[in-house]
Amino acid sequence: MILALAALLGIAAGLRSMTPLAAVAWAAWLGRLDLASTPLDFLATRAAAYGFTLLALGELAADKLPLTPNRTALGPFLGRILTGGVSGAALAAGSGHSLALGGFLGSVGAVVGTLGGFRARTRLVKALGARDWIVALAEDAVTVAAAALIVLAARG
């Protein structure tokens, strides 16, 4: 189950790259994920929890700006793969499973989330005749809720 959650967390990273990192950092800092003996132990600090939360909030705001690059552009795409991998690795390792496998599944999930999220958002904007930022707000809510529920389910 944890490995499936790592992949789902990767999908969330494909939607918003920093939100899953903030979620795992908070879970680790609050003691819900044990990262003490892993290379990701830095995520279990207050600085990481607050820092990734600030980055996530900045991303939520920046996503609505017209000059923000498309998530499928090379830089943002690679960033989502990286953050999905780190998030999945932290979730898996912090729950007593393979860091490497969690990272791989988180990265694969990020590819799925990036491409699927882009497609879903563009189609919803067209189908609803809505402004992009309105659909983006719904995507924000789904991502934040999903990341929170996934890290809570990891120890549930």
Instruction: Give the proportion of residues in helices.
Output: over 70%
Number of domains: 1
**Rg for CA atoms:** 15 Å
Mean pLDDT: 96
State the helix count: 6
Describe the 3D structure.
The chain is mainly α and 156 residues long. The chain has one domain (2-155). It has six helices and no strands. It has helices spanning 2-15, 19-29, 46-62, 74-94, 99-128, 132-155. Helix 1 (2-15) runs antiparallel to helix 4 (74-94), helix 2 (19-29) runs parallel beside helix 4 (74-94) and helix 5 packs antiparallel against helix 6 (132-155). The longest helix has 30 residues, at 99-128.
Descriptors:
single chain, 156 residues, mainly alpha, 75% helix, globular
Element layout with pairings:
Elements: H1 2-15, H2 19-29, H3 46-62, H4 74-94, H5 99-128, H6 132-155
Helix pairs in contact: 1-4, 1-5, 1-6, 2-3, 2-4, 2-6, 4-5, 5-6
Q: What's the short story on this structure?
A:
This protein is globular. The protein has 156 residues and is mainly α.
